[in-house]
Design brief:
70% helix, single chain, 11% strand, 4-stranded antiparallel beta sheet, rod-shaped, alpha+beta, 5 helices, 408 residues, 3-stranded antiparallel beta sheet
Length: 408
């Protein structure tokens, strides 16, 4: 009876072992599908990184081209500013020269007018019937009256005073001094002078008017020329100001474009860094994406989990490859490096700090002196899997029971 019971237990254990094997195969297939998905995601990420690198290169070339355009525009603006300053200096010099010409013309006109006035006064003073003649006649009359016995002495004194005043007036007109203007009755003499000059002034008026008209026409011509030149200069300045405004607006637009491009480049760089970090995480988690894989380096053989140690440890074992270049081993759990074995002859390693309630993918690589990796060998741990040491214990108990039955 006990043998039958043991056989039933063995059958149950066999069934359980078959179920566990089925579960293990299902788990392995699911892990392989997840691994394929991770490979596809990694490939997509690498493609995205390539596209972003291309876009980054294009943006850098566009940025350099825009910077060159800005430098060219700035040089053009500087040249225009320099040209405008030179033009302003030339215009100011031309204006100064024109003002000097106008001042010279006005001085000449003033000298001509003064000379003509002096000439008229001299002619009035020296002409027949003028003040000298009248003065001489008054002096002769005063002399005649003084010789006359029957004439009144009052009349003689009046005639002498009149002759003296006329003589003083002639002296003033001829420019022989200013002291004669202080003599008595000077206001009346000025009135006499105006009365004497007015009839004689008509003789010199046509000549003076002709000279004045000629000078006025010359002045008007100069003024019209200056006004036309000033209007042309003003138009040129307005055109240059409009061009400067256009150039400044273009430079401002270029500056805004550069700032927007720089902001876009900064955002692209941030995205590139994020994608690089994501790709790095994928590569670190992927057991097949190790750097510097050497296909000629032989991997370990018969990689397996021998037993469970404590609540968070596993003992793994393998067979050393027949390759003299192997100098050690690297063990990854879930894509993370957990242990580095620096001896090529070691065939076991104890892994601590594992979450044994979850399924774990354990990958082993052989390494050489150049830190190159071999192809990976993988074993998957599941929370309910039966390890070799547990199988030996169970078979030991079964053998003990069978030997006991035989003794009985």
């Amino acid at each position: 009876m006990e043998i039958d019971n043991l056989k039933e237990k063995v059958t149950e254990l066999t069934c359980e072992l078959n179920q566990k094997s089925t579960q293990f195969q299902e788990t392995e297939s699911s892990l392989r599908s997840e691994l394929n998905k991770a490979r596809q995601n990694l490939q997509q990420t690498n493609n995205q990184l390539t596209e972003i690198d291309t876009i980054n290169c294009q943006l850098r070339s566009n940025l350099s081209h825009a910077e060159q355009q800005v430098q060219e525009k700035n040089s053009q603006v500087d040249q225009l500013k320099h040209h405008l300053e030179q033009t302003d200096i030339q215009h100011s010099l031309q204006l100064q020269a024109k003002e000097n010409v106008l001042q010279n013309i006005q001085d000449k006109f003033e000298r001509v007018r003064r000379k003509s006035d002096e000439k008229e006064l001299d002619e009035i003073a020296r002409s027949e019937g003028g003040l000298l003649a009248v003065t001489k006649e008054v002096e002769d009359a005063a002399l005649t009256v003084s010789e006359c016995v029957s004439c009144s002495p009052v009349l003689t004194s009046k005639l002498k005073d009149a002759a003296a005043q006329l003589s003083c007036l002639s002296t003033v007109i001829c420019g022989q001094g200013e002291e004669s203007r202080k003599m008595q009755g000077l206001g009346e003499l000025h009135r006499c002078e105006s009365e004497e000059v007015l009839p004689l002034h008509d003789e010199f008026e046509p000549t003076f008017e002709l000279e004045c008209s000629e000078n006025q026409e010359l002045t008007e011509m100069e003024e019209s020329m200056l006004e036309s030149q000033l209007s042309e200069l003003q138009e040129k300045l307005e055109r240059m100001e409009a061009e400067m405004t256009i150039v400044s607006e273009e430079s401002k637009d270029l500056q805004d474009n550069l700032e927007s491009r720089e902001a876009e480049i900064v955002e692209k760089m941030k995205k590139i860094e994020e994608l690089k970090n994501t790709s790095r995480d994928f590569r670190e988690r992927s057991p097949i994406s190790r750097p510097e894989i050497n296909l000629t380096l032989l991997p370990p053989e018969e990689f397996r989990i021998t037993r469970r140690v404590g609540s968070d440890g596993l003992l793994v074992a393998w067979k050393t490859p027949e390759d003299d270049e192997v100098t050690g081993y690297l063990i990854y759990v879930g894509g993370r490096l957990v242990q580095r074995v620096r001896s090529a002859s070691r065939t076991k390693a104890l892994l601590h700090g594992l979450h044994l309630e979850n399924n774990l993918s354990i990958v082993l690589h052989a390494t050489n002196s150049g830190d190159e990796l071999s192809d990976p060998v993988e074993v998957v741990y599941t929370s309910g899997m039966v390890l070799p040491d547990q199988k030996q214990k169970r078979w030991g108990k079964v053998n003990q029971v069978e030997s006991g039955d035989k003794v009985i």
